[in-house]
Amino acid sequence: MRFVFAILAFVLAALMIAFGIAQRTVFLEPASTSLSATVDDGAPYAVIDGAALGAFPGSQTITVSGSDSVFVAYARTADIQAWIGADEYAAVGLDADTGKLTVTPATGTAVTPAAETEAAPLATDPAGSDLWLEEYTGDRSLTTTISAPEGISVLVASDGTAPAPTDITVAWPTDNATPWAGPLIVGGALIGLLGFVIYLLGLLHFRRSRRPRRNVPRGPRMPRLPRVPRPKTIKASEITGPRRSIGRSMIAVPLVLVSGLVLSGCSPEFWPTAAPEAAATATATPSPSAEDTEAPVADEAPEPAVTVPQLERIVGDIVALTAEADANLDADSLATRFTGPALEQRLANYKVRAADASYAATVALPDSPLTLTLPQQTDAWPRVVMTVLQSADEASVPTMALILKQESPRENYLVEYAVQLEASAKVPSVAPATIGAPLIAPDNKFMSMAPNAVGPAYADILLKGEASPSFPLFEAKGDTARTQLGLEYKEKQLLELEDTGTMEFTNAVGSGEIIALATNDSGSIVAVSVNEITTVTPVAGKATITPKEGPSKALSGIEETTKGIQSTYSEQLLFHVPAANSTDKIVLLGFSQGLINSVELP
């Protein structure tokens, strides 16, 4: 009977092991599911819709080929549609009935900026656009894996002029784990080992049953006889000699089998796992991040202009370009990322440094983390975003606030204001970057002072000091611009001027657009620019004025004049303006000043 049980155990073990191995070989499901589409209409762009990307759960591995150069980028669907504008493209979608990808020729809708700008040729190459959350390029073919949540689409192109790549495949990972393979293999090995033990026990019982049995009745006790030498004992193994090899082989085979199968079953795919508490939600890599999805946004509210990771990439590019342009005095390169007063100050500094290498460069943009991000809450253009770059070494690297503006979808963000923050400045509480802030109109009356009046009012304080009507409205404590540019500084300049000339100070509106973003206290952060004009004229036209070495001489290009010199200084100013019903004063958060022009009077 023992042999019967052993045979049954061997058969069961073989079946379990075979079925466990089959689950990882013959019956193993594919590791991924894929859908393919062919773009053959010659359109310069193809857009994989978010519905197609979400056809199956999990990350998406996108493979694109069929052109000499391949470009792939992912971004919010609305931003991709805005970038394409009125151009033709191939829309790659999902047929809900067949579960296959479809390709449909489509034409986009042009985005008209809120403010009319000079007509300029639109960029056709999508590479390098600030709208993309991430972009990839390759030659002839490209494969990349992303994790795109709802609302994200993928743009595919060559160079924006040649037809888009023709072959597109999207693959999703599938769960091909075989949780019973491990238990079946190991369980089969253990049952086989148990069967072998039963077999040994049966064999031992069989041997014992074949030994001779003696049952002699006891008679009268006989006297002991002398001992006779005992014959040599024959071992049982010697009697059953041919079976020795069978036994050892039977032991070796299960041991090798068990050890090999146990080692092969160590992979997690071989074993049951506990079900997760909640399914994880896919998020785009590297953006939007968790920070971008934790705050609720009202359905009717527009999305913020940028995400934090998106802005980090944009600012990183700007910082690197600015450092190189500053070092090489490269005005053309600088103009690709700067505009308005921020561009004016740096271009003037380049011109001065080209004539006088010892002249100090404009304060560099710190290669530091973004400690504040305040994007405009909008789905239109132009778009505005404010950010603060703060280094851990604040003593040697000043904290800078940047105001960036994007005029249209196919234009990149340009730095319009680059302001060094005051050491004591406390930026007011603002909305999370995931929500953004609305743009305040320049003539808004719900502030303690309309944004378009802040610049002229503060310039009047710098010109007149306490005599200015606006003096009580602005906080004087911590305002270093008053000591560096204010009335006392101007009076000192007048005293240093010789009796042969006179000096006059006037103010004018700067080239920067007035930008105001709402704060949580119903106030706003206001960025304005003011031009301060200094005119030096000789007395009665009889004296000769010689510009001092440095910026004025470099910009004017004159050695001396009997007519006079007019110098224009640009001042970038950043304020916190409280609400109209607040008792707080307007606070200067930061400023940057520099000579931008110097000319001889007519």
UniProtKB/TrEMBL annotation:
* A Pfam family the protein falls into: DUF8094
- Asked if the Swiss-Prot or TrEMBL record annotates the protein with the keyword Transmembrane helix, the reply is yes
| Transmembrane residue ranges | 180-204, 251-271
Q: Which domain of life is it from?
A: Bacteria
Q: Does the keyword Cell membrane apply?
A: no
Which keywords fit this entry according to its UniProt record? Answer: Membrane, Transmembrane, Transmembrane helix
Q: Where is this region: Disordered?
A: 212-239, 277-306
Q: Which InterPro entries match?
A: DUF8094 (IPR058407)
Domain spans labelled DUF8094: 303-596
Q: What is this protein called?
A: DUF8094 domain-containing protein
